[in-house]
Amino acid sequence: MTETLLEERERDLLRWRSRRGLVENDLFIEQFFAAYGDQLTRRHAAGMSALMDLADNDLMDLFLRRKEPEGALDTPEVREVLELVRKRQPGAQTHTS
User: Of 1, 28, 42, 59, which one's alpha carbon is 20 to 30 angstroms from that of 18?
Assistant: First the structure.
Protein backbone atom coordinates (compact mmCIF):
# COMPACT_ATOMS: atom_id res chain seq x y z
CA MET A 1 0.00 0.00 0.00
CA THR A 2 1.45 3.35 -1.00
CA GLU A 3 1.19 6.51 1.06
CA THR A 4 -0.72 9.39 -0.50
CA LEU A 5 1.42 12.52 -0.75
CA LEU A 6 -0.08 15.81 0.29
CA GLU A 7 -1.03 18.15 -2.49
CA GLU A 8 0.68 21.53 -2.50
CA ARG A 9 -2.36 23.33 -1.05
CA GLU A 10 -2.73 20.76 1.75
CA ARG A 11 0.96 21.08 2.56
CA ASP A 12 0.70 24.89 2.62
CA LEU A 13 -2.30 24.74 4.96
CA LEU A 14 -0.48 22.33 7.27
CA ARG A 15 2.56 24.59 7.28
CA TRP A 16 0.39 27.60 8.12
CA ARG A 17 -1.35 25.72 10.94
CA SER A 18 2.06 24.70 12.29
CA ARG A 19 3.16 28.27 13.04
CA ARG A 20 3.92 28.63 16.72
CA GLY A 21 4.29 31.40 19.28
CA LEU A 22 7.60 30.01 20.56
CA VAL A 23 10.37 30.78 18.07
CA GLU A 24 12.33 27.66 19.02
CA ASN A 25 9.41 25.48 17.93
CA ASP A 26 9.17 27.44 14.68
CA LEU A 27 12.84 26.66 13.96
CA PHE A 28 12.24 22.93 14.33
CA ILE A 29 9.12 23.10 12.19
CA GLU A 30 10.73 25.25 9.47
CA GLN A 31 13.60 22.79 9.12
CA PHE A 32 11.15 19.89 9.05
CA PHE A 33 9.20 21.43 6.16
CA ALA A 34 12.39 22.44 4.34
CA ALA A 35 13.73 18.89 4.52
CA TYR A 36 10.56 16.84 4.05
CA GLY A 37 7.88 19.17 2.64
CA ASP A 38 7.73 17.53 -0.79
CA GLN A 39 7.58 14.04 0.75
CA LEU A 40 4.83 14.61 3.31
CA THR A 41 1.94 12.19 3.32
CA ARG A 42 -1.51 12.24 4.84
CA ARG A 43 -0.04 10.10 7.63
CA HIS A 44 2.54 12.81 8.38
CA ALA A 45 -0.21 15.45 8.29
CA ALA A 46 -2.20 13.51 10.90
CA GLY A 47 0.86 13.27 13.16
CA MET A 48 1.77 16.94 12.75
CA SER A 49 -1.83 18.03 13.35
CA ALA A 50 -1.92 16.10 16.61
CA LEU A 51 1.33 17.73 17.72
CA MET A 52 0.03 21.19 16.85
CA ASP A 53 -2.79 20.74 19.37
CA LEU A 54 -0.19 20.87 22.16
CA ALA A 55 0.89 23.91 24.13
CA ASP A 56 4.24 25.35 23.00
CA ASN A 57 6.20 24.17 26.04
CA ASP A 58 4.84 20.62 25.76
CA LEU A 59 5.74 20.58 22.07
CA MET A 60 9.27 21.81 22.81
CA ASP A 61 9.70 19.06 25.43
CA LEU A 62 8.85 16.47 22.77
CA PHE A 63 11.13 18.04 20.16
CA LEU A 64 14.05 18.07 22.62
CA ARG A 65 13.38 14.50 23.81
CA ARG A 66 12.66 15.69 27.35
CA LYS A 67 9.41 13.74 27.06
CA GLU A 68 7.89 11.11 24.82
CA PRO A 69 4.29 11.03 23.56
CA GLU A 70 1.81 9.53 26.02
CA GLY A 71 -1.83 8.49 25.99
CA ALA A 72 -3.84 9.49 22.93
CA LEU A 73 -0.81 11.30 21.51
CA ASP A 74 1.25 8.09 21.44
CA THR A 75 0.47 7.03 17.87
CA PRO A 76 2.70 5.74 15.07
CA GLU A 77 1.97 8.91 13.06
CA VAL A 78 3.07 11.22 15.88
CA ARG A 79 6.19 9.16 16.60
CA GLU A 80 7.14 9.16 12.91
CA VAL A 81 6.81 12.95 12.63
CA LEU A 82 8.71 13.46 15.88
CA GLU A 83 11.56 11.31 14.62
CA LEU A 84 11.77 13.37 11.42
CA VAL A 85 11.66 16.65 13.35
CA ARG A 86 14.32 15.48 15.77
CA LYS A 87 16.66 14.53 12.90
CA ARG A 88 16.51 18.15 11.75
CA GLN A 89 17.28 19.68 15.16
CA PRO A 90 18.27 23.35 14.75
CA GLY A 91 21.95 23.95 15.32
CA ALA A 92 22.80 20.27 14.97
CA GLN A 93 24.99 20.70 11.91
CA THR A 94 28.25 18.81 11.91
CA HIS A 95 31.28 20.97 12.75
CA THR A 96 34.83 20.10 11.83
CA SER A 97 37.75 21.06 14.05
Answer: 1
